[in-house]
Amino acid sequence: MGERVEGPEPGLSRRQLMKYAGVGATLAAASTVAGGNASWADEDDRGAAPSSGGSGGSRGRAWRAGDHHIHSEYSGEFDTSVNPPVFHKGADAVYPIVTNAIMAKNFGLTWAMCTDHGGPTHSKVNLEQAYPDLLLSRRLVPDVLQFWGMEFDAPAMDHHTLMIPRHDDEARMLFELESRFAKHDAFPSDPGRDTEPKMVEFLKVAKGMSPKPLVIAHHAARSASGLGVWGQDTPHEFRNGNNAAPDIYVGFEGAPGHQAGPLNGGARGGYGNYPTHGGYDQMTAQVGGLWDSLLGEGRKWWITATSDSHVHWTRGGSDFWPGEYSKTYVHAKQDYADIMDGLRTGRIFVTTGDLVRSLDVSATSRRKTVAVGETLTLDRRARNDVEIEIRFRPLGGTNANGDRPEVTRVDLIVGEVTGPVSDLDAATNPTTQVVARFGPGDWQRQGEEYVVRHTVRDAEASFYARVRGTSTDELEPAADGLESPWEDLWFYSNPVFVRIR
């Protein structure tokens, strides 16, 4: 990993950004004509991958930034005084799909996904109205791979990404899952859809599909009333879902969207009960917390960072454009299937404010090396010294706020992997700790990258290692207030596992 980072650099002025928003509205009008007559099979989709979903090897992979949680004008409202309900665009989010794609490209993203809210009979709206607009947007902005999916109304839980693999029947796949399982899609409403067993049933059905979709939880602790006092999403629901479909239900947002909230007097992430820490959900930000508890079981459970863009903060919203502030980097080819494979298998790091442009974490022992998302297996009978190498590449220019962010510290976090827990609501891993903190005097420069190494001596128990870094002087990310999000930047890697057997 770490050879290249592909994608355009941010560079449009505020006036140009607003002009693009206007262009998007014009293009949306065109989509009413073009989309209505477009044949799905005739689409010229340069990025489409074979329907098998295979990644085809690692050659050509680079860190590619994206966003899997973006809203368009199809996050609207329904008039339920009539039957069937009548859908109206633009009630909750205002931008056409193509506008989001244009802005994603401008801010350096090479893949993106609109995830619009559901509602009564919304599955039909997605199929008949939103999907043709997506096809047009793919043609108009071919440099950005644009996935199909939605913000799924998960039974008994908060919203989730439902990402559909790129294939000829992608529209029908989403229609089947949304119409059968989204808790708000039925009209009249059906309370039987809003249960934990229904969520597990949904995941099992998704697991049986080919190619396989992906499910990632959104703003998981937004409804939590305190530190470790959970709301809609609970640890046992994550575990039961991951047990039912471990290759489908693979993680949650580490850094939720709505990060521009403080710029208009609101809370980062819209977390009005208990705040984010450094812009990250408490489930991720607390060392030894829920994420570490899941990793300590050996679960392949990943974190991402998204915009959750509805309305830009300059228009009174709480949002940044896709890629303007938060990025999810996947080590992949510019290929639908390989990007989805990277998300599924954890070849991911996340950053805010463009603090870094690449982040590689590897574990090496006895001439074997693995990277994030992978497992290094060693023999317990031998002496096992494991070298953890961290490589990162700072931005080297200005971010979307015109700042030149600097990494002030990098932390190596290690926890033991002890296997499944008996308490499905367990939310701590007491073995997890920051084992090393590195400042500028500790890392070496190699070309455009900075490198730091740490050796775990004579490892006798299985463990995982993950990395975070910051632009601040905080030893642990503090609970967020109304500080500017641009002054509080963090990046996180996903873990590398070491199995001692």
TrEMBL record:
<dbReference type="InterPro" id="IPR016195">
    <property type="entry name" value="Pol/histidinol_Pase-like"/>
</dbReference>
<dbReference type="InterPro" id="IPR006311">
    <property type="entry name" value="TAT_signal"/>
</dbReference>
<feature type="region of interest" description="Disordered">
    <location>
        <begin position="37"/>
        <end position="63"/>
    </location>
</feature>
<protein>
    <recommendedName>
        <fullName>Tat (Twin-arginine translocation) pathway signal sequence</fullName>
    </recommendedName>
</protein>
